[in-house]
Each structure stands twice: as structure tokens, then as C-alpha cells.
Amino acid sequence: MSIKVGMVSLGCSKNLVDSERMLFKLRKSGYELVTEPGLADVVVVNTCGFIQSAKEEAIETILELVTLKNEGTIKKIIITGCLTERYREEAAEQFPEADAVIGIGNNKDIVDILNQVLDGERVVDFAPKLDAELTGDRIISTLPFFSYLKVAEGCSNCCTYCAIPSIRGKYRSVPMEDILAEARKLAENGVTELVVIAQDTSRYGEDLYGESKLPELLRKLCRIDGLKWIRTLYCYPERITDELLDTIADEEKLVKYLEIPIQHCSGEILSCMNRWGDEEKLENLFNHIREKIPNVILRTTLITGFPDETEEQFNQLAEFIQRVRFDRLGCFPYSAEEGTKAAEFENQIEPEIAAHRAEIIMEQQLEVSYDNNKKLMDCELDAVVEGFDRFAECFFGRTQMDAPDIDGKIFFTSDRPLSIGEYVRIKVIDTLDYDLIGEVIAE
What we know:
By secondary structure, the protein is α/β, with parallel strands linked by helices. The chain has helices spanning about 15-30, 50-70, 80-85, 90-95, 110-120, 165-170, 175-190, 205-210, 215-220, 240-250, 265-275, 280-290, 310-325, 350-375, and strands at about 5-10, 30-35, 40-45, 75-80, 100, 125, 145-150, 150-155, 170-175, 195, 230, 255-260, 295-305, 330-335, 380-390, 395-400, 410-415, 425-430, 435-440. Strands 2-1-3-4-5-6 form a six-stranded parallel sheet, sandwiched between helices. Helix 5 links the parallel strand 5 (about 100) and strand 6 (about 125). Helix 9 (about 215-220) runs parallel beside helix 10 and helix 13 packs parallel to helix 14 (about 350-375). The radius of gyration is 22 Å and the shape is globular. The relative contact order is 0.08.
């Protein structure tokens, strides 16, 4: 009887790519993959350990699996990812029921580790984090028409609040020929939308080629037959060049969408974060981007409650957001992460205050989003079909304005059957706070 293996992938899309590579290795070695952990003999948990909420989710997931193991539903548990890489032996001690606790450098050996576990061994091992694979075949676990394309591993930006460099190691770009080969293979297998990701995509190539090669990479991706939409996430503001903006403006396959995490607008706060910019520089940047790329969709992320953030600095941020009016925005309360410089700063803000400030920013953004959506009434937009909602009796999907998993949806009716991954033209007939409602235009 074949051994059934389930994968639980937590955290970001970059972690998901790692999970997909492990899934490929497991299936190639003859293991049967199942989508529900409760149906598995062995469950691999690829954890996130970036911030407090992510750690809590990982711990809760592991404890749920421990319960299933104690009940006899599953036999073995393997834990990997950022949480175990960060806490190592402490994590192994915390979860004695786990049959393997490994670091990200061990993911390439997931089959051997699983075999050891099935032989009754307990594996606790942490290979060098620089052993983490930069390339490899994957089993796509997203909807079949889109895939994430990870172009680098690790981070060298060293923001004072962030543990990623210590967890994932220094920034390491994937050679361009390997990225293009992977993208071609994905396109040959039916992927029409690529989402280019890294901790900092705008830094791509600096370590290999001495300068950012993101514009060149994007232009070459656009030459691949079969791809229709190519989206770029996680560009840092100080690395937004005219070459990059011209590339996005010129290339039809590059969706006019940029995610640029700024975290704050106060020069003092940004300096303490080891981040670039101030209010004037950032506002000038976003005005320049909008001049270079008409109708661009701008997304950012912010942190409230960073140590020493005054009421005045928070109000400065809130007013900045009102002026710039980002199309998409996420805001997170600061959490002091052990091992980071910011955790040692004086004048830590109470978590309740940080959370309340984040809520205020998101309430503001709700109004901005509502106003922006209202402007789209009666507009015609291209969208990709993601599924059918049986309760609402309509299809749903995304326009170019929305990235998978993090942005809104468009819900729409159609007079004809539609397939997942099909691209359709939709007229907007109504709006919600973050979502749109429309109907497919007859061809």
C-alpha cells in the first residue's frame, strides 16, 4: 500500500514555491500526494516564522496535527520552514511529537528525511540555509493558469524590524537562464499568468551581474509564447528606475501594477527602520510613477506602532495616505521580533495602540477603495475566470488590477459557460468596498 503524504504550506507565496518543489520530489519518489492532512499518513508542514501572528498560526497548525497523530489519524509529522529555521533546537524541544524538525536547507532532502522517519528515526537537522534550492521542478498548487515565479532567495536589506535575513540568509538571485527555462516550462503546461516574486524583486541580479536586471528579465519573460499577464511584486522604492517604469509601460504582457512596500512616510521612522525615503521623496516617486505609467495600480504595505512612533508621526502617515491614495494597501501593527535591532529599541509602543492605528489606516483605505471602485462603473475590463460561486450563482475572478490572494475580486454573470483560466471582457455594473460586480460582454 502506498504511503500518502499531505503538505500544509503556511505564510507567503515564496514559501509556497518551496512547498511545490518538495511536492514534486515526493511524487517523483513514488509517494501518493493528498490535499487533506486528515487523509495522509505523513504530513509535512512548511511553516512561516516572520511575525508573531504567523508564528501563532504555525504553532496552532502543528498542535492540530499532533492531535490527529495522537488519535491515530496520521502517523508522522515533519516540520520545516521559517519557524524551524529560526528556532531550531528550541522548536524540536517544543514539539516532541514531531518526527522530523528540519531547516530550509534540508528541504532538498525531503525524500530521504521522510524515508528515515518511516524507518522509525527522529530527524532533527539544520543544514546551512545557503543550501536552500534556488531552482527545481514543482507541482503547481495554485489554480492551474497562474504560478508564482521566485527569482531570488533571502534578503540583504537588513531592515531593523525584520528577521528574514537571519532566517533565509543573504540575497541570492537565480541565474536568468534558469528563470526563463522555468517560465517556458510553466507556459508549456498551461500557465498564462506569472507573478514574479522575491523578498525584493527590484534587487534582482545585483549579486550576479553587478546591477539590477529586473527590466531585462521582464522583457525576456514577455517574449515567451503562451503568457498573457506578468505581474511583479515587492519592488523597493529606492530601486524604482525609469528603465523599470518604461519596461512596464511598454510591454503589453506586463500588467500595469506595482507593489512597493514603503512601511511609513516619516523620515525619522524610516531611518530607524533602515529604510529609504521621507514624505517628500516618496510622494514625488509615486507622482513620477503615475506620470510614466498612466492608470497604474499602486499597492503598498505599512507598519504602525514602530518604536518611538509619535501621535504626530502617525497622523503624518494618515494624511500622506489620504493624499497619495494608493489603489491597494495593507497595514500591519508592528511586532517586536527577537533577534532584530528594533526589538531592542527603547519606547516600544503598546501592541493595542499599534493595532488601533493600523485599523484607522485600513478604515481610511476602505473609503479610498470604495471611491476608486465607483469610478469604474460602466467601464469594460479584462478579467480571468477563477471559479463559480454556487451560493451567489455567479462567476468570480480577477482583473489586471488585482494580484492573487492579496487583492479583491470581480463577480460576474455570463450567458455562456466559462472555464477556469479563461480571459473575458466584463462591463462593471456595480461595486462593493473592495470588489466589483459585472457581466460578461457578448463577443
